[in-house]
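cron nightly-structures :: item 1 of 1
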Amino acid sequence: MEDEPTFPAFPYEPYSIQIDFMKALYRSLSKGGVSMLESPTGTGKTLSIICSAVQWLVDRKHRLKSEANHAQTPRGGNGSDDEPEWMKNFVANKDAAVEDKMEKKPMFGKGKPDKGRNQGSCRNLLSPNFVEEGIHEKKDSENLRENNGVELNDEEFFMEEYESGEEEDVGAGKSKRKAGGVCINSSSDEGEEDYNEDDEEELKIYFCSRTHSQLSQFVKELRKTVFGYEMKVVSLGSRKIFCINEEVLKLGSSTYINERCLELQENKKKEVSKLKNLGSGGRIRRTKASSGCPMLRNQKLQKQFRSEISQEGALDIEDLVHLGRRMGTCPYYGSRSIIPAAEIVVLPYQSLLSKSSRESLGLNLKNNIVIIDEAHNLADSLISMYDAKITSSQLEHVNSHIKQYLERFRNFLGPGNRRYIQTLLVITRAFLQILFNGKDTSLVDHGHDAEIAFGATNALDSSMAINEFLFSLNIDNINLVKLLHYIKESNIIHKVSGYGNKVANLQKVSALIDSRESSEEGSILSGFRAFVDLLLSLTNNDGDGRIIISREKPTSSGQEGGYLKYVMLTGEKIFSEIVDQAHAVILAGGTLQPIEETKERLFPQLTPDRFHFFSCSHIIPPESILPVSLSHGPSGQSFDFSYSSRSSTIMMEELGLLLCNLVTVVPEGIVVFFSSFDYEGQVYDSWKASGILERIMKKKCIFREPRKNTDVEFVLKEYKETIDKLSNTNQKEDHVPQNGAILLAVVGGKISEGINFSDGMGRCIVMVGLPYPSPSDIELLERVKHIEGLGVSNSSRSTKFSVGNEQHYSGDVQAGFAILRSCKHRGKEYYENLCMKAVNQSIGRAIRHINDYAAILLVDARYASDPSKRSLSHPTNKLPQWIKDRLVPVTGKYGEAHRLLHQFFKLNKKRGCQ
């Protein structure tokens, strides 16, 4: 039996629930498998994760060293009998390397990622991190100009002749190249050691969360411990966050910044340095490359950057950017180069959960630890990374540029290239036809099915399975796997988009290209990536997802363009790749329940001995929180914020009267959560017209959550400063008209997800109604239908689950409600869980430490029913246990709730003064 773990790195005296949490995490890491650990927000969850997980890592490394030393002795073996199997294998395979690593640790940050490790993935072509290797044209340029009449400056857009292999051999397609024509890029200075994975790869922890701010918070907590200075830590992020090249940053959007960065990598100045014999007459051309980006030209600065990080301890993204600016070298590529030697890698969701991103970054999960924080919506976040979308305007651009390229270079293309490019044209035309000629039933010959798909319902939005989509467009005979292989091998998208850019610039017909002031979809290369993304999605299994066909529709602001979108529905296979590689996967969060849904969607085949769950209560005493479910307003009107009633003037005014009363009893800050920005705007306008807004503002200033995430920080700063200023004034003067502020926020917005309203910023949280997602969202309905069918055999699904045939959907809310009502099992529960998870995330923003206190008002009659008559699916049964245990249902007059609030704040004010 192992000794009880201790956590000496915890910087304070830990509470009992923190010790319980750390021990549960430590045991989970020792056993391996998947664990879900739930600890309410405000209980020091992040610090507990750090002190437990990193302590386990340190203990494991010591044990590994001991095992390695033991293996060198005459009586040494492969470890004790009770050693986990994965550890025996680890020691057996790497004992010598471990011993060497322990005696002489490699300098942190010296290695470089293995660029060639994952070149086999088609999806790498589409990743923003993908850097296309240059394919050198080997044809004689003089002969080309003389014999074919091609201008010198068009030569770069020529394609090498492409030979397609047999159908069963995807890898057989290749460009023809002469011996000695292979080009290897080397960014290293002469004498720099090549990266050797076996020498420098460390046993490590990957910690990921949803936002960069949450990752920065993790690093700040890490610095509070000795681990922040003893462990080798690296933070990863997006190019947009890391970039210090002002010319690139001016482009604004992430898409343009990614593309420009990659263009600069491709535009390297190459200088032939030597030719090496490969044997058998082959030669390899080695070139020394300096990057086109000024921040990457000096490799010695990159070395110094890595050296600086090794001396500074744990740095967050902001620190790395500051260091990069000070040294004049790229922090994005500098941080990536440190991954192999790091022991703790801090990175966003996308970088770890997306297979293409993992491969691009060279992340090795084998036998390592993966910790996913804020995992309450993990299943939906995971599958959304594998969605693919192309708009009608992007399709038109792709189609026209392929056509333009084919017309210009047709005479210089070999049969292989010509055939594949014509195939791309066939597909783009088919996609455009389904978007623009939806009523043209001649497109397909499916009789009644075609009538449903393309005209009878006049549907603006519809959905299809992959095979149905391919058959309906008559492109089911195209081998998409081989086509994708051709796209990857031939560099076709860069050739075509490059030529298209050149023509557009020369003719001055594309202001989009010149000014780069268009939307995300404006770039030619972006359109090609979106197109290839969709092609790749079509190679998934038929039941893994659905194709959404959304045609152009009129809106209040004009015409909304159409699009094709692949919506991934199953995350099991995606997540299993992570679970199968990693030693342990930890899902952490403040509100993870109900856990059955997550298990069903992500790891249904996981055996019970490989799954662990732990949940702890809150650290605050019962008197520090007052959750109240409120059924009636001050005038006696029953609160009903269901879709059909919430927009009535009576309901909005009753909510306004409630706020008029709350501002007289609640000190400092009140945060009010609405179901959507549209509804918040509707209520605000109603209050303004009726004079309620003016009444509220006599007591508290009003702030509103902006739609743009970039403006949120400014609004929050003003909100906090107003509360602090008025609170200090109130303490000096007895009669001050205003006593704080109100923030009108939106469920699912930035404020509800990652902002902490500790102390005066959130003395009262008001949740208006039940924020169910809109039933007009066709993607949501597809997920609901898929989840409703989980566990149902294919033979019985069609008869048992009739909504599965409701494929062609007009976007009408009532039609959406009809589909939702037909769901009786998992789909219904999933829809309810989406709502209550959003509620729990929002109301959990208030209590942030043991001395904090806040009231929580759940404003809707559906929250406040008699506890004895509640079903298992009742909304309050899905609240966190620490809130549910203290919930006070007020089913009668509002006066009772007002009295409770008055007593609550009076009591806590006294406690604070003591």
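cron nightly-structures :: done
The chain has 37 helices and 26 strands.
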